[in-house]
Amino acid sequence: MSARQGGLTLIELLVALALTALLGVLLAALVNGWINVRERLSQGSPGMPVLDFCLALERRFDTTVLRQLHERRLPLALNWLDWQPDAPQLQWVALGAWPSAEGGARLQRQRLSYDRRGQRLLLHTSSDLYAAGAPLWTLREQLEQVESVSFNFRQDSRWLAWPSTDRLRPDRGVRLTFQRDGAPYVCTFALPWGRS
User: Fold this and answer.
1) How many domains does the chain have?
2) Could you tell me what percent of the chain has a pLDDT over 90?
3) Is 192 helix (H, G, I), strand (E, B) or coil?
4) Does any domain span residue 15?
5) Residue-number span of the structural domain to which 63 is assigned
6) I need a surface site. Which of 76, 110, 134, 152 has the fewest CB within 10 A?
């Protein structure tokens, strides 16, 4: 009869110690990375305002709907996106996430514009879809120190400088390219009907 071994062999003990040390190193690296991220967020890294602005835009583009817009009693073109390159500004209609906080209307016009003189990207909303005069705009977000702004619109498999005018084949996405503090940024937004 063979006697049962009552303890651990030296090899089993060394393997257990090696696994414990490896788990300790991985845990320390994870905690260190988490602390570094928290420090960067609390200090406000240079890209944070851009990220916040692009996330705010993404929420607005996520709920885009087709709706007729009016200004000074005249209807604007019935498109998903109303692009005015001379301004430059882009308007669309989206469902408001918090209607009571944004004028009480569920459907709201959105306006993304670039102020060349002030070098600012501005996001305004208005609850007035059918304005008899100029709509009353409320500033929701702004990004300062912005230059070299360009808009592109995804149609089929290409990025173009103009949005689609075909309501049955709307744009699949919007891309905003700009520079801030000398660094290039690109914010790309998939429109609700353009996701596959």
Assistant:
1) 1
2) 39
3) helix
4) no
5) 46-190
6) 134
Asked if 56 contacts 106 with a C-beta cutoff of 8 angstroms, the reply is no
Beta bridge partners of 4: none
Whole-number Cα distances in Å, 41 to 28, 33, 36, 109: 20, 12, 9, 32
Query: Greater confidence, 57 or 44?
Result: 57
Q: Please, are residues 58 and 83 in contact by the beta-carbon 8 Å criterion? A: no
Return d(Cα 151, Cα 61) in angstroms, integer: 14
SS3 66: coil
DSSP-derived letter for residue 98 is S
| Nearest residue to 152 via CA among 83, 65, 78 | 83
**CA atoms of 143 and 101, how far apart (whole Å):** 21
pLDDT of residue 196: 47
Q: What confidence score (pLDDT) does residue 166 get?
A: 77
Question: What is the separation of C-alpha 29 from the centre of its chain, rounded to a whole number of angstroms?
Answer: 30
DSSP strand E in the chain: where? 64-65, 70-71, 74-75, 82-84, 89-95, 107-115, 120-126, 138-144, 146-155, 158-160, 173-180, 183-190
Residue keyed to tokens 């005069």: 133
